[in-house]
Amino acid sequence: MRYAYIVRCTGVEHDATGRVATIHCTYDPTTRSGTPGAEARKVKGNIHWLSADDAVPAEVRLYDRLFRVPYPGARNPWGERGAEAAAAPAGHAVVVAGDDELDAEAAERDFIDDLNADSMRVITALVEPALARAEPEARYQFERAGYFVADRIDHAPGRAVFNRTVTLKDSCPAGRDSPSRAGRRAAARQDQRPHDAAHACAARGPRYTSGADFHAGVSS
């Protein structure tokens, strides 16, 4: 058990409805967390626990990213280009304007369509009694849940309110890059594109190069 001892379950009692009512176990007194020699024995996992009789309720606000895509309102909201670009998420407008068209702004979508409906969820949780006495803006890690801060305004004696600031893992949907990784990939692709003006004009078509002596080669 986390911050306690290694325990072995020896029996279980159920109530009339079949729910577990009592667990019988033995413990090894030499394995108390934080004491010398406690790490000599290895276990497959830890039980994170809280005494429901002693815990206090708290309002917990689970904040996530405001937008559900890295580039809200963009034609390719996941920052993908060319063959990498996948179909837009459900509800997104389908556009066919090319990446190099001058009227690209007209093809942009409404960024409101990309808002994350689950950017804030409010739940009630049980926390250690000491957290009810925490000062506003005091910061904690809730194990297996993330990092939290006591709300600067709403947290007060008799009303514990905590806001999640950082999750323990990236919640980006499977198969997609997180915004930070997608940004790095887009920047890398941009660095690989020719930067000279002549090449850019030639790529846009004859109407940008007629009447001038443009060289479409890449500058060294």
Could you spell the SSE succession in H and E letters?
EEEEEEEHH
Question: Looking across the biggest beta sheet, what order are the strands in?
Answer: 4-3-7-6-5
CATH class of the domain at 56-65 and 117-166: Mainly Beta
Q: What is the global morphology?
A: elongated
Q: How many E-type strands? A: 7
Structure description:
This protein is of the alpha+beta class and 220 residues long. Among the domains are: 6-40, no CATH class; 56-65 and 117-166, Beta Barrel (Ribosomal Protein L25, Chain P); 187-220, no CATH class. 10% of the residues lie in helices and 23% in strands. The chain has two helices and seven strands, in the order E-E-E-E-E-E-E-H-H. It has helices at residues 179-192, 197-204; strands spanning 6-14, 20-28, 56-63, 120-127, 139-142, 146-150, 160-166. The strands form two sheets. The protein has a five-stranded mixed β-sheet with strand order 4-3-7-6-5, with no helix packed on it. A hairpin with a 5-residue loop joins strand 1 and strand 2 (20-28). The protein is elongated. Mean pLDDT is 75; it is low at 91-106, 186-201 and 207-220.
